[in-house]
Structures are given as C-alpha cells and as structure tokens.
Prior knowledge:
Blueprint: H1 6-18, E1 29-35, E2 45-52, E3 58-65, E4 75-81, E5 84-90, E6 102-104, E7 109-117, E8 123-132, E9 141-147
Antiparallel strand pairs: 1-8, 2-7, 2-9, 3-6, 3-8, 4-5, 4-7
Amino acid sequence: MKFASLRKAFVTASILIAAGQMDLALAHSVSAVTIGASSVNTGASDLAVVICDPGTDYLEAQVKDGSSPEPGLLVNLHVVKGNQMKTIADTVSGDTNYTPFIRVNGGAGVYYIAVTTTTAGIRVFDLNYHCKANDGTHPESSIEVLQVEP
C-alpha cells in the first residue's frame, strides 16, 4: 500500500501536534514514508529543516527502512547544522530495527535532515528525530519540508 509523501506526513503530524491530539513522544516520528517511486537513474532525496527552540543542546535522529531488501538499495539519514554533519545508513532493509541515533551538537536553531537512497528504487522508511537538552528534556521544535521526491 502506498502511503502519503513525506510532506503530507509532516504536515499531518504538525497539525495534530498543534491541535494537542498527539502524544509528545509521537510528535517526533514519521512512519511509512515512500521515497524513490519516481527515481529512474539515481537515488532520491527528501529534505526538511527542524528548528529547535532555545534550551536545545543537540538534535538526534534515526531511520528504519521497512522495505524488502534489494541489493545496493539502502536508505541513508543525514543531519546537518552549520559545519557539522552526521550520516548513517540502514544496512538491513525490512527488519524491525532502527539505526542507532546520530547526534549533532549544534544547540538551538536550524538543522537540516535529509533521507536519501543509494540508487534508483522505491523505499518505505520511518524516521524519529528529537531536539534535546543535555539533561534529557525535549525543547519545542518545528519542522518544514523543503523537498520531496516520491
């Protein structure tokens, strides 16, 4: 079953958060996002910005590829703030495990999150992200999708 694009998932999550209808723990998760359906010769990329409020020390994120394994076709997660960048790949497609969290210690402000594929092909992924303080609390955040490649 094909699910909504990353944009629709983020917009829906934002609306539910604003309406107070979603638990805070779920407010930073996006599930069953399809990427790469229109990719033919190269991998696909989805890009968003997360804005972490004051009190944030770092942004952490992880990804899970829920698709059946295909040789050479992986989902990658990239987090960028200023001159810092962390990247991780889900090397086991179709399992129930997320990658370990990657963490960028950039404080409050704008972080870029990109999910990419290594080559042409369809992937369905889940994403978790959290703006956090060193004491483990979650300062407020907002997200805006900049690019979607279904």
